[in-house]
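If you are new to this repository, start here. Below is one unmodified record pulled from the training split, so you can see the exact layout before writing a loader.
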Amino acid sequence: MPEVTIIDGRSGSGKTTAAERLARETGAQILRMDWIYPGWNGLAAGSTSIPGILHAGRFERYNWETGVFDEVVELLPQSPLVIEGCGALTSANLEAARQWAGAGERVHTIWMECAGAIRRERALARDGEMFRPYWESWAAQESEHFAQTRPLSLAAEIVHAD
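And here is the target side for that same chain:
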């Protein structure tokens, strides 16, 4: 297994399920983008925080109920790492992951692909009514962010999770 695996894709595409499966199989720790977005308008801000998080080896976890960062989470530097979520795969994040992994650039990148209707159904089933009012604005953030960062072009593997 690569030292770091980055899994990206649109909301509801299967990223979390893939990350959990990989972590179970390999003993990797997971860094979820959901833990670092500063709220429903925070996709870009969460994405750009990854290099600093990997450099520091820790991050403050966002509490979706209170709307504040309230828990410090330490990353284990000698353990494999899976970074998963919308905005995880950018050039800057890939470079930071390579530095985290060390010599040999043991980093693997995955883009999760899934039909829009299935993604929406999965996301709303997972996050319920909390996500419903934000679905459209989140999708717009995804589109804008992905147009700027072009994560599909950085993916070594594309997984169709339909």
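Two things worth knowing about this chain: The helical segments are 15-26, 43-48, 50-56, 91-101, 116-127, 135-149. Residues 4-160 form a domain with the Rossmann fold fold (CATH 3.40.50.300).
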